[in-house]
Structure formats: C-alpha cells, structure tokens
Amino acid sequence: MSVVHHLPPGWLLDHLSFINKVNYQLCQHQEPFCSKNKPTSSVYLDSLQPDPVSPFGTPAPCFAPDATTVLDKEDGGSCEVITQKYVFRSELFNVTKPYITPAVHKKDQQSKKDENLVTGEKQEVSVSVGKKRKRCVAFNRGELDAMEYHTKIRELILDGSSQLIQEGLRSGFLFPLVEKHDGSSGRITLPLDACNLSELCEMAKHLPSLNDMELQTLQLMGDDVFVTELDLSSRIIENNSSFSKMITLMGQRYLLPPKSSFLLSDISCMQPLLNCSKTFDVIVIDPPWENKSVKRSNRYNSLSPQQIKRMPVPKLAAPDCLVVTWVTNRQKHLCFVKEELYPSWSVEVIAEWYWVKITNSGEFVFPLDSLHKKPYECLVLGRVKEKTALALRNEAVRTPPVPDQRLIVSVPCALHSHKPPLAEVLKDYIKPGGQCLELFARNLQPGWMSWGNEVLKFQHMDYFIALESGQ
User: Where would you find the membrane-spanning parts of this chain (predicted)?
Assistant: First the structure.
C-alpha cells in the first residue's frame, strides 16, 4: 500500500512502495533447441538478456533469474519459463535534506522589508550590487495574489502536515536526520534522457496513417511481438498479462507493468484514444503549464491555457467523472482552472487538495514561507455535471462526497515532474471497477490508461534494478 497513514488532514504516502508493489516481473519462455527469428523493427518486446552496458553508459543490471520452471510440451519437448523481478531505484527517493535550508532562507529574508498583507502594503526588495545597494521594483499583482493565497492556506499546510509527519516519525516510516561522516556528498547520478519520446511523436506525424477501419488497439502477447513505430504512435498499446513486458524503442528499453495500456502521441494525435469506445470515471491531468523556468530549462514543450482548454475531456469523461488537475503555484493558472477551464468542460469544482513535499526526516523541501518556491502544489478536483434524469438513475451507485482541503504528504522523487500516485487516495470516490485515465502522463500504472508524448519516460530500464534470486 502506498498509503502509510490516513488521518483527518489527509494522507502520508510512500511513493516508492506504490511502484514496487507492482509486479515488475518479466516472464520468458525459452526453448534451448529451437531458434527464433528476432524482429527487425526498432520497437519490439525484448528478451531478458540485457546488454552489458546500458544506452546511458551505466552498467546494466546483471541477469539473475528469480525463478525457473520447466514445462512439458505436447510434442514431448520441454520449455523453460524464466522470471526476473525488477524494482525502482530506491536512491531516487533518498531526499535527506531540504533543497533550500531554513538558514539560507532566513539570511535571504534579511534583505527584504516585511510586507503587511492585511493592509495590502507593497513589499520592496533591496539587493547588494558591489558596494552599492540597488532598489528593486515592488512585487507585481500576481506575486501579491500568491502571497495572499499562501496566507489563507498556510495554517492548513503547517498543522495538517505536522500531524502526518509526527505519525510517520512514530511509526518509523520517517526518521530523524543522521549526518553522514564518510565524506560522501550523497548526490545522485540521474540517467540521461537519451531517447526523446516527444521527438518520436513529432516524427510519427510524417508516417502514413492507419485506415480508420483498422483495429485501434494492439495487445502485446507472447515473449517477442512485432511492433512498428506506426503501430506505437497510432494505436493504444495494451499489456493485459499478469507479467511485465519489456519493449525496445529507438535503442532504449522500457518496462511495461501488467494490466496497463498507453498511447504515445502528442495533442494532435489523440484520435485512437477517442476511438477506443471508452469513457472514464476518473481523469487525472498534469498539464505542461507555461512558466519561465520551463522555458529557460527547455525540459519539455509547454501548452498555453487555451490549448489545454481544447483537450477533449468532455468526450472522454463518463457521467459523474471525477476530474483532477495538477496546478502550479501561479494564481493565474489556478484561477484559469476554476473559473474558465472546468466550466468549459461542464465540470463543477468540488475540492482543492495540496501535495506537500518533505524529506525522509519530515522537513519541508523548501521553507514554507519561501518566496522562491513553495513546498506544496495544488490539485483542483471537480465532477462532471449530470443531467437531472441521469443523476436520479445513478443514485444507487453514488460515491462518498470528496472532502475539501486535504493534504497528500510524501517524499518526492528526484526525477523532475514525477508526481505521487493518486490511485489509492481516489479509490473511495470512484465507483467500483471505474475506468481511470491519466493525461500528460510520464509513467504507467496497472489498471490505468495513460496518454502523453512522454508517457514511457519513467518506465525506462535505467530507473529499475534487477533483484537477485531470493530477494
């Protein structure tokens, strides 16, 4: 379970546990005396035998079968079934210290005059430039709005997080910080993003399109399945087995969890998702919001609010669908979602939740009152509005009302934009057996449909390690 503690303020989550409870176990049928022709396409299901060196230049995990079973065949021969289990790299969740320490934040604050948010008095900032002091411009309207919003929710974040963190410390899930004396810096080397999935989606636009009458879904069956780039970019790919599958895409290997499905495409190629004859009872959206940081870093292509507004959510949403949208700490984006985006999709705002990011010892990753970055992000939850007759007909399958102002407290992943799982905290507010969809996803989840132009990003094999037999 990813939910470590559930208290009135919200949930303390273990993101790593959620990933590793997935059965990331590869199963391969091997016939020693029967040779098979390997597919020649650039996208195919891989065997269990990894290359000695990964595409990123780091040592690939050594092959250590978790279990081997010999099955008798009808023709009198035998076939070995080898399984290998993988887990996510635990060091990617080893956040021992805040990104900005309170001491650094306090020193930075000494150069600023206090602002009276009650009276709306502007705050001026002065910084040192050589031997002179340069006076900066007062905060703009957006910054003042953000400060006012922070003031409203500050006690909620502080008090609720404190309760969940204290419970985590008592149970041993969180632990007091112990300084290292071995001289190591504790820095994590992250794999490079060598396979640019978004570029692949752009390239796929120039491939010939499939006939509309052809099958829109491709199920991965067996150990070696021929899958072309055209299949990948124009069809929903499904792994309906109880084991994981490994595919190789442009020389990079990706691990697909069992019972998962995805469409790798950008916003201009969503037709296969619309043609799959499915509507969804929960839709989680993590839009690539425009901001200066993303523009400077060039991490991914952002979308304007109007482009996000054109997402076909109404066509994908089932009656009474729960829509959850991640929003950055910009009041402009929050107001857009609540006042323009949701109304345009006929979605009624019902709650705001907050993801609070902490270290393994329970400290905020940023000081709570930091003007640079906040240690929390907002989620806006809404329900698709129903017609009266339909609402009465569905009264028997009504779910509990979604509570407002709840916290999701967790240690964040070191990978940028790797959001915590929402499946277990949302399950009580979705009808049993409900269909789930994540838009702008960067990883896959069992039982969920995932879409995005980087939908396999965090399924890359370099983020996983192979367990030795018996672990």
Answer: none
